[in-house]
Design goal:
The complex is a heterodimer of chains A (481) and B (601). Chain A is an alpha+beta fold and 481 residues long. Chain A has helices spanning 6-12, 16-27, 81-91, 103-124, 131-158, 165-180, 184-194, 207-240, 252-256, 262-267, 360-369, 374-385; strands at residues 31-36, 42-47, 55-60, 68-71, 97-98, 271-287, 292-301, 307-315, 331-339, 348-350, 354-356, 395-399, 402-406, 409-413, 419-421, 449-457, 462-472, 475-478. In chain A, strands 6, 7, 8, 9, 10 and 11 form a six-stranded antiparallel β-sheet that branches. In chain A, helix 5 runs antiparallel to helix 6 and helix 5 packs antiparallel against helix 8 (207-240). Chain A starts with 5 loop residues before the first helix and ends with a strand. Chain B is mainly alpha-helical and 601 residues long. Chain B is built from 34 helices and one strand. Chain B is flat and about 115 Å long. The chains are: A alpha+beta (481), B mainly alpha (601).
């Protein structure tokens, strides 16, 4: 049985309320029985809820890197308050007697073990695909692409200046067909254009605000155009060759809304084993276009030196039931890491991990993985962001010689004297960070590693960076979240 | 690469995209760019590609213009993405840093994000988030310094005050430059807080700022700056200058500053205020002044005013009332003074009290006597003894002051023996004498029960400092309160070691509980029991909870919940045993409070 603390329970809880309610269950003495299995790998108990029969809840530590919580309650929160309450009862020293694992739990555990085994077996077998169904789906997607093309061309014909909040909403109504055509990614891309014409509260942009969005709007239209062209080519290829797998070289599949299964990523060889990751920065924002909250973690893959990102999507409608991600200040030891197809900062995902404290060696390793030649990085970034469907704000670790200012503007400089201007402009979803530079100890502005997010300003034609964190030999100083 | 021509193409594409692609066909501005592009294309093929795309747009028709324009814009955008300027030319200067010491940056986003929102947005519930984060020590993080500084302007003044009083002191002098940079001397609330904080952090280095604030500042800023002036000759000149202000508030602040000084100019200015229209503004600062020179001015003016009262014809009511008021205000200036000269003056007045009391008018001699007794009660021992010894001769209106004087100057035993008989009065017949005795009894109960903990000057209506008597009360007061079954008094005087009082409180609680439906009724009693450590406090609280549950009083339960953490820690087992017996709603309301009590250190 691993030692657990109240912090562990709070981290496992989907939100603070669930943890509080779980603790209340112990106080209310709602647990009729508290047990553990003979091998101490399973905690279980009966908890009186609002239903007639008590709920059987459990916390399964058979695989400590991914604890499994089960409960017979109808809650959609995982873990539910009953499972959390069970953990609180354990942490608070309530007696857990050794007992036979209930039949239904044992069955579930067996099933889970069998599932793992089956998964393992299946992962060795080639996956069978219903080609007819797939072809039918692709045809519908192609029709969706035609619809997107028509909408895009209509928008260009109408002109950006003639768009308003009302027409933006009308376009969004029409874009619902894209969702029905298995193209949620394309739908979100279209929303990224329409959302420029109204504020979050639904108010229309003022004339002055509109002037600032025209360049961005034009870029978004170009993106939609490329999405139509590349999407059609990709889908046509897949329709012609039924054995063709989703493309992993580019991000086109994700742009169209491909929801990658971990199995598919594994099949595509996009898996790394026994990887250590350190979170360099974190951000959480409201994506109005997708109608969901997004938690973004920026991680350094200590094996490859690549900066990768985790994304946790919490749709508005299900926000209560999905656990939000949080800042992470330890090293995540991941047995199996799945890497999504993508460019500079691919998305990653894992199912289980164990945490350990960050040591100075880890910081030194991150610093060694940073890029010291700004000119080479700039070239790489420019070459990357010119692609219409590329991530326009790639993240890099830069080993700088010093951070200073030119005419009051903060600037980062490498050993060769190559400079990059620092800015907060264009990053509305992240807390400002440039002002923090003057609040840091002087030593942090010389010969350290700065984690930055690039951004190309379309109107001013400037390529600048936003500082996210500074990695020193002894730790990571976060400048955002 | 010929970027200017490309930029021109982009601008034209942007213009047409804004206007709509229907206008793109045959666009002459775009057409003009084909030739230079083709020329550039001879050196760099990408320009030839752009030239072709431009040509396609120009030659397009209604059906093809949108696609052609999109092709062109995508191509030009892609090229321009590779042409972003990166560096900044010029000398690289070091950033001026303020070292706060490396603050923790381990605050998780789940705490930090709501806190940043609470500090920088509007709406309810933010103060709790900020207080909670402060308790957790989350503010020791450089990411919160700027938002905390911005919160000085928060429209919710409680938040701004909390940040100013509790949070910003964590950062010390390092935030001075930031405060100075943001300070607007023409501003109001937030900027007043900013100025006050700057002056508190760096009083020596802020001389110039004070001058500037006095010259250019808004009214609120000027008042804040005046408060920070000292007793130097330079400051005195500034203060005297501010007395010319049209604003009453600024003149009042200047008088407060001047009253701290012993210099002749200051004394002259105070004298002028006391003889002029600003007398009411001058009373409070002069009362606080401990300067003998200021006192002498007051005594001189007060003596003149008093003597003038005797010489006037009492029919001149308006003028006469004004004169009496002036005398009352001058007397008010003598409050809390126990020096010989003041004593001699007030004793002298006291000897002439009959003559003074006889003065009639809108403001009469009775007001003078009441004010005089009030001043004597706060004065020297001799004046206090004088009024205490003649307690029987005073009316009920002066009785509270007389009783207070007695408590200050006599032993607890003597106070009890002299004044306890007033408490025994039983109201019966409606006579003038009976009414006066009842009023004296009420005055003593009020004084003893602390309901007069905050008193006000009846001349200036200004709040007076809370009286803390150094001598405890004679223990027999509680015996008498129990004997007289005076619940109000017992509640104030109760001690946990007084078995009769405990029994009386328990009975009173029992009786109130029986009649109670909501919890309002027994709130005071239960508070007393918890406060004095009554042995039955926990059981009474549990009984109260059960009553509130019985009558479904959510208000009562909420209120009782708040009192739980005030119980002794040994109440936890009883409360934990109680919780499972309650309905779930009640448990939800109370369990957090039980946890708080459990975690109480």
């Amino acid at each position: 049985m691993p030692s657990i603390t109240e912090q562990f329970i709070e981290a496992a809880a989907p939100n603070m309320d669930a943890a509080k309610n779980g603790r209340a269950l112990v106080l209310k003495k709602q647990f009729q029985s508290l047990h553990q299995s003979a091998d101490e790998s399973l905690l279980f108990g009966l908890c009186q809820g609002s239903g007639k029969e008590p709920y059987l809840c459990s916390a399964d530590f058979a695989a400590p890197e991914s604890v499994v919580y089960r409960c017979s309650c109808p809650s959609r929160q995982f873990p539910c308050k009953h499972s959390l309450g069970l953990l609180y009862a354990y942490v608070q020293g309530n007696p857990f007697t050794v007992a036979e694992v209930p039949e239904q739990l044992a069955a579930k555990r067996d099933k889970a073990a069998a599932r793992v085994e089956k998964k393992k077996e299946e992962s060795d077998k080639p996956k069978t695909v219903n080609k007819t169904a797939l072809a039918k789906k692709i045809k519908v997607q192609l029709e969706g692409i035609d619809h997107l093309e028509k909408l895009t061309l209509d928008l260009v014909r109408l002109g950006i200046g003639n768009m308003n909040a009302k027409s933006a909403h009308e376009i969004e109504e029409q874009a619902k067909q894209l969702g029905n055509a298995y193209l949620p990614g394309a739908q979100a891309a279209l929303h990224n254009y329409t959302k420029l014409f109204y504020l979050e509260r639904g108010e229309e942009e003022s004339a002055k605000q509109r002037e600032t969005i025209y360049s961005e709007a034009l870029d978004q239209l170009g993106r939609l155009h490329s999405l139509v062209k590349q999407g059609r080519a990709y889908l046509t290829r897949r329709l012609e060759d039924a054995d063709l797998k989703p493309e992993t070289e580019t991000g086109i599949a994700a742009w169209l809304g491909q929801a990658w299964q971990l199995r598919e990523l594994k099949d595509a060889g996009l898996v790394q084993n026994h990887v250590e990751l350190i979170q360099l920065a974190f951000n959480s924002y409201d994506d109005v276009a997708r109608k969901e909250f997004v938690d973004n973690g920026v991680w350094m893959n200590m094996a490859t030196g690549k900066i990768q990102i985790t994304q946790n999507f919490r749709p508005y409608k299900a926000v209560k039931h999905i656990k939000s991600d949080d800042s992470f200040f330890e090293v995540a030891q991941v047995p199996e890491l799945c890497v999504y197809p993508g460019g500079v900062n691919p998305r990653i995902r894992w199912e289980g991990m164990i945490a350990r404290a960050i040591k100075n060696d880890d910081c030194e390793r991150i610093r060694n993985l940073g890029k010291a030649d700004f000119a080479a990085v700039i070239k790489e970034v420019k070459s990357h962001i010119k692609g219409p469907l590329a991530d326009k704000q790639p993240i890099y670790a830069l080993n700088f010689s010093r951070i200073g200012q030119v005419n009051g503007n903060p600037v980062i400089e490498d050993k060769q004297g190559e400079r990059l201007a620092l800015t907060d402009e264009g990053f509305h979803d992240e807390p400002t960070s440039c002002h923090l530079l003057s609040l840091l100890p002087r030593a942090l502005l010389d010969h350290q590693t700065l984690i930055v997010r690039f951004q190309h300003d379309l109107d001013q034609r400037l390529l600048r960076v936003k500082p996210l964190s500074i990695v020193t030999p002894s730790g990571i100083v976060r400048l955002t979240l | 690469m010929s970027i200017p021509v490309l930029t021109q193409v982009y601008d034209e594409v942007r213009r047409l995209s804004i206007a709509g692609s229907a206008l793109a066909s045959g666009d002459f501005r775009l057409k003009k760019l084909v030739a230079p592009l083709e020329q550039a294309g001879q050196k760099s093929p990408v320009f030839a590609k752009v030239a072709q795309a431009v040509q396609k747009v120009v030659e397009s028709n209604d059906a093809t213009s949108s696609e052609s324009l999109l092709e062109l814009s995508t191509l030009v955008n892609a090229i321009l993405y590779t042409q972003g300027q990166t560096g900044i030319d010029g000398k690289l200067e070091p950033i001026e840093t303020v070292d706060f010491g490396l603050q923790t940056t381990q605050t998780p986003a789940r705490v930090l994000k709501p806190l940043l929102e609470a500090l920088t947005s509007v709406g309810s519930g933010r103060l709790e988030v900020i207080k909670d984060a402060f308790e957790r020590g989350a503010f020791l993080d450089q990411r919160l310094i700027k938002p905390a500084l911005l919160a000085l302007d928060d429209p919710h003044s409680e938040i701004a005050d909390f940040v100013s009083d509790r949070v910003l002191p964590l950062y010390g002098k390092s935030i001075l430059p930031e405060l100075q940079a943001k300070l607007d001397l023409k501003g109001r609330s937030g900027h007043v807080r900013r100025l006050a904080f700057i002056l508190r952090l760096d009083p020596e280095g802020s001389r110039e700022l004070i001058k500037q604030a006095l010259e250019e500042g808004s009214k609120e800023i000027k008042i804040q700056a005046i408060e920070c002036l000292g007793e130097s000759p330079e400051d005195l000149i500034c203060l005297l200058d501010q007395l010319k202000s049209k604003s009453k508030d600024i003149r009042a602040a200047a008088l407060r500053g001047l009253a701290k000084s012993d210099r002749q100019d200051a004394i002259a200015a105070l004298r002028s205020a006391l003889t002029g229209d600003d007398i009411e503004l001058a009373v409070s600062p002069i009362r606080r002044s401990r300067s003998p020179l200021v006192r002498d001015v007051v005594l001189e003016l007060a003596a003149n005013e008093r003597d003038g009262l005797f010489g006037r014809k009492q029919k001149e009511t308006k003028e006469f009332s004004k004169q009496i008021k002036r005398f009352l205000l001058l007397l008010e200036c003598l409050r809390d003074r126990d020096d010989m000269r003041t004593e001699t003056f007030v004793m002298d007045c006291f000897e002439q009290r009959d003559a003074l009391t006889a003065i009639k008018g809108d403001v009469s001699g009775k007001d003078i006597q009441q004010q005089l007794v009030s001043i004597m009660a706060s004065g020297s021992k001799r004046s206090q003894e004088t009024i205490a010894a003649s307690h029987m001769s005073f009316s009920d209106q002066q009785f509270i002051d007389v009783f207070a004087a007695a408590r200050r100057v006599w032993s607890p035993k003597k106070v009890y023996e002299e004044f306890s008989p007033y408490l025994k009065f039983e109201s019966g017949k409606k006579t003038k004498k009976g009414d006066a005795s009842a009023a004296k009894q009420a005055a003593i109960v009020e004084s003893l029960s602390g309901s007069l903990r905050q008193s006000y000057s009846h001349v200036t209506h200004e709040q007076l400092p809370v009286e803390n008597f150094s001598e405890p009360l004679d223990p027999r007061w509680l015996d008498m309160a129990v004997e007289l079954k005076n619940l109000e008094l017992v509640q104030f005087l109760a001690r946990s070691d007084h078995s009769a009082a405990n029994a009386f409180l328990a009975d009173a609680f029992e009786a109130t509980l029986k009649k109670s439906r909501t919890g309002y009724e027994f709130a005071d009693l239960l508070t007393t029991m918890i406060h004095v450590g009554h042995p039955g406090a926990t059981d009474s609280l549990i009984a109260a909870i059960n009553t509130c549950v019985k009558f479904a009083s959510t208000f009562g339960l909420k209120w009782l919940g708040h009192t739980i953490p005030k119980l002794p820690k040994d109440a936890v087992p009883k409360l934990e045993a109680l919780l499972p017996t309650l309905p779930k709603d009640a448990i939800d309301l109370l369990h957090d409070y039980v946890t708080q009590l459990k975690n109480k250190s």
